[in-house]
Design goal:
Elements lengths: L1 E4 L2 H13 L6 E5 L6 H11 L14 E5 L7 E6 L6 H6 L2 H5 L4 E6 L13 E8 L2 E6 L15
Parallel strand pairs: 2-5, 2-6, 4-5
Antiparallel strand pairs: 1-7, 3-4, 6-7
Helix pairs in contact: 1-2
The protein binds adenosine-5'-triphosphate and magnesium ion.
Length: about 150
Protein backbone atom coordinates (compact mmCIF):
# COMPACT_ATOMS: atom_id res chain seq x y z
CA UNK A 1 0.00 0.00 0.00
CA UNK A 2 1.12 3.56 -0.56
CA UNK A 3 0.71 6.73 1.42
CA UNK A 4 1.69 10.12 0.06
CA UNK A 5 2.82 12.47 2.80
CA UNK A 6 2.99 16.07 1.67
CA UNK A 7 3.80 17.52 5.07
CA UNK A 8 4.98 16.39 8.46
CA UNK A 9 1.36 16.68 9.59
CA UNK A 10 0.43 14.03 7.03
CA UNK A 11 3.14 11.77 8.40
CA UNK A 12 1.72 12.38 11.86
CA UNK A 13 -1.75 11.27 10.76
CA UNK A 14 -0.33 8.23 9.05
CA UNK A 15 1.68 7.26 12.15
CA UNK A 16 -1.41 7.70 14.33
CA UNK A 17 -3.34 5.43 12.03
CA UNK A 18 -0.65 2.75 12.13
CA UNK A 19 -0.32 3.07 15.92
CA UNK A 20 -4.00 2.19 16.33
CA UNK A 21 -3.49 -1.26 14.92
CA UNK A 22 -0.17 -2.05 16.59
CA UNK A 23 0.12 -4.87 19.04
CA UNK A 24 2.95 -6.13 21.22
CA UNK A 25 5.57 -8.12 19.33
CA UNK A 26 5.11 -6.09 16.14
CA UNK A 27 8.26 -5.21 14.25
CA UNK A 28 8.34 -2.33 11.80
CA UNK A 29 11.26 -2.24 9.38
CA UNK A 30 11.90 1.24 7.93
CA UNK A 31 14.07 1.82 4.90
CA UNK A 32 14.75 4.64 2.50
CA UNK A 33 17.46 7.19 1.81
CA UNK A 34 18.81 9.80 4.23
CA UNK A 35 16.20 12.33 5.27
CA UNK A 36 13.29 10.42 3.80
CA UNK A 37 11.30 10.61 7.03
CA UNK A 38 12.01 7.45 9.00
CA UNK A 39 12.78 9.18 12.29
CA UNK A 40 9.94 11.65 11.82
CA UNK A 41 7.52 8.76 11.41
CA UNK A 42 8.97 7.01 14.47
CA UNK A 43 8.61 10.18 16.54
CA UNK A 44 4.91 10.49 15.68
CA UNK A 45 4.38 6.81 16.27
CA UNK A 46 5.92 7.25 19.71
CA UNK A 47 3.65 10.20 20.38
CA UNK A 48 0.63 8.08 19.47
CA UNK A 49 1.82 5.32 21.81
CA UNK A 50 2.09 7.92 24.58
CA UNK A 51 5.84 7.89 24.89
CA UNK A 52 6.77 10.96 26.94
CA UNK A 53 10.35 11.39 25.79
CA UNK A 54 11.27 13.13 22.58
CA UNK A 55 12.33 10.52 20.07
CA UNK A 56 15.30 11.49 17.94
CA UNK A 57 17.76 9.58 15.88
CA UNK A 58 19.52 6.94 17.95
CA UNK A 59 22.36 6.82 15.44
CA UNK A 60 25.11 6.76 18.03
CA UNK A 61 23.57 4.29 20.39
CA UNK A 62 22.01 1.78 17.96
CA UNK A 63 19.09 1.08 20.25
CA UNK A 64 16.88 3.08 22.60
CA UNK A 65 14.05 1.68 24.67
CA UNK A 66 11.21 4.07 25.55
CA UNK A 67 8.40 3.62 27.99
CA UNK A 68 5.02 3.69 26.27
CA UNK A 69 1.65 4.10 27.90
CA UNK A 70 -0.63 2.63 25.26
CA UNK A 71 -3.18 -0.02 26.20
CA UNK A 72 -1.09 -3.12 25.74
CA UNK A 73 2.18 -1.64 24.59
CA UNK A 74 4.61 -0.78 27.35
CA UNK A 75 7.82 -0.27 25.38
CA UNK A 76 8.82 1.25 22.10
CA UNK A 77 12.19 -0.04 20.95
CA UNK A 78 13.90 2.21 18.41
CA UNK A 79 16.86 0.76 16.54
CA UNK A 80 18.99 2.55 13.95
CA UNK A 81 21.11 0.08 12.01
CA UNK A 82 22.85 2.78 9.96
CA UNK A 83 26.16 2.54 11.77
CA UNK A 84 25.84 -1.05 12.82
CA UNK A 85 28.93 -2.91 11.75
CA UNK A 86 27.91 -6.38 12.65
CA UNK A 87 24.51 -7.98 13.10
CA UNK A 88 25.99 -9.76 16.06
CA UNK A 89 26.28 -6.42 17.89
CA UNK A 90 22.52 -6.23 17.94
CA UNK A 91 22.25 -9.71 19.36
CA UNK A 92 24.82 -8.78 22.01
CA UNK A 93 22.83 -5.79 23.26
CA UNK A 94 19.73 -7.93 23.66
CA UNK A 95 17.66 -6.50 20.80
CA UNK A 96 16.31 -9.88 19.80
CA UNK A 97 14.64 -10.39 23.13
CA UNK A 98 12.53 -7.31 22.48
CA UNK A 99 11.42 -8.66 19.10
CA UNK A 100 9.43 -11.34 20.86
CA UNK A 101 8.28 -9.33 23.85
CA UNK A 102 4.47 -9.28 23.95
CA UNK A 103 4.59 -5.74 25.36
CA UNK A 104 7.06 -4.13 23.00
CA UNK A 105 6.85 -2.68 19.51
CA UNK A 106 10.17 -2.49 17.69
CA UNK A 107 10.92 0.08 14.99
CA UNK A 108 14.12 -0.34 12.98
CA UNK A 109 15.63 2.34 10.74
CA UNK A 110 17.90 1.06 7.94
CA UNK A 111 16.42 -2.37 8.57
CA UNK A 112 17.77 -3.72 5.30
CA UNK A 113 21.13 -4.02 7.00
CA UNK A 114 19.82 -6.59 9.40
CA UNK A 115 17.20 -8.23 7.20
CA UNK A 116 18.66 -11.66 7.84
CA UNK A 117 17.65 -11.59 11.46
CA UNK A 118 14.17 -10.10 10.99
CA UNK A 119 11.32 -12.56 11.58
CA UNK A 120 8.77 -13.30 8.82
CA UNK A 121 6.07 -11.26 10.54
CA UNK A 122 8.09 -8.05 10.08
CA UNK A 123 6.12 -5.24 8.42
CA UNK A 124 8.00 -3.16 5.89
CA UNK A 125 7.88 0.60 5.30
CA UNK A 126 9.88 2.06 2.46
CA UNK A 127 10.28 5.86 2.44
CA UNK A 128 10.97 7.76 -0.73
CA UNK A 129 11.49 11.41 -1.66
CA UNK A 130 9.02 12.43 -4.33
CA UNK A 131 8.24 15.83 -5.81
CA UNK A 132 5.18 16.27 -3.59
CA UNK A 133 6.90 15.19 -0.37
CA UNK A 134 7.41 11.65 0.85
CA UNK A 135 5.94 8.46 -0.48
CA UNK A 136 5.59 5.63 2.01
CA UNK A 137 5.22 2.15 0.60
CA UNK A 138 4.17 -0.23 3.27
CA UNK A 139 3.03 -3.75 3.94
CA UNK A 140 1.61 -3.21 7.40
CA UNK A 141 -1.74 -4.89 7.84
CA UNK A 142 -1.91 -6.13 4.29
CA UNK A 143 -3.51 -9.32 5.53
CA UNK A 144 -6.12 -7.55 7.60
CA UNK A 145 -9.12 -7.25 5.33
CA UNK A 146 -11.05 -4.97 7.65
CA UNK A 147 -8.32 -2.40 7.82
CA UNK A 148 -9.21 1.14 6.75
CA UNK A 149 -6.91 3.05 4.49
CA UNK A 150 -5.55 6.29 5.93
CA UNK A 151 -6.83 9.20 3.90
CA UNK A 152 -4.33 10.97 1.71
CA UNK A 153 -4.98 14.48 0.48
N1 LIG B 1 6.09 14.75 4.49
C1 LIG B 1 7.12 14.70 5.32
N2 LIG B 1 7.18 13.68 6.24
C2 LIG B 1 8.25 13.59 7.06
N3 LIG B 1 9.30 14.44 7.07
C3 LIG B 1 9.27 15.46 6.20
C4 LIG B 1 8.20 15.62 5.30
N4 LIG B 1 8.45 16.69 4.55
C5 LIG B 1 9.62 17.17 4.96
N5 LIG B 1 10.14 16.46 5.96
C6 LIG B 1 11.42 16.73 6.61
O1 LIG B 1 12.34 15.76 6.17
C7 LIG B 1 13.25 15.44 7.22
C8 LIG B 1 13.16 13.96 7.48
O2 LIG B 1 14.17 13.62 8.38
P1 LIG B 1 14.20 12.30 9.19
O3 LIG B 1 15.26 12.47 10.21
O4 LIG B 1 12.85 11.89 9.63
O5 LIG B 1 14.68 11.27 8.05
P2 LIG B 1 15.37 9.86 8.23
O6 LIG B 1 14.82 9.01 7.13
O7 LIG B 1 15.22 9.38 9.63
O8 LIG B 1 16.88 10.18 7.94
P3 LIG B 1 18.18 9.33 8.34
O9 LIG B 1 18.35 8.34 7.24
O10 LIG B 1 19.26 10.35 8.36
O11 LIG B 1 17.95 8.67 9.66
C9 LIG B 1 12.85 16.26 8.43
O12 LIG B 1 13.66 17.40 8.48
C10 LIG B 1 11.41 16.65 8.14
O13 LIG B 1 11.05 17.87 8.68
MG1 LIG C 1 16.62 8.69 11.03
Amino acid sequence: MKFLSKTEADTKNFAKHIALSLKGGDILALDGELGSGKTTFTRFLAEALKVKDYVNSPTFVIMKVYKAKADKIKNLVHIDAYRLENQKDLVDIGALEYFDSPQAVTVIEWAERIKKILPPRTQYFKFEHVREGRLINYSYGKNQKTRNEPSSK
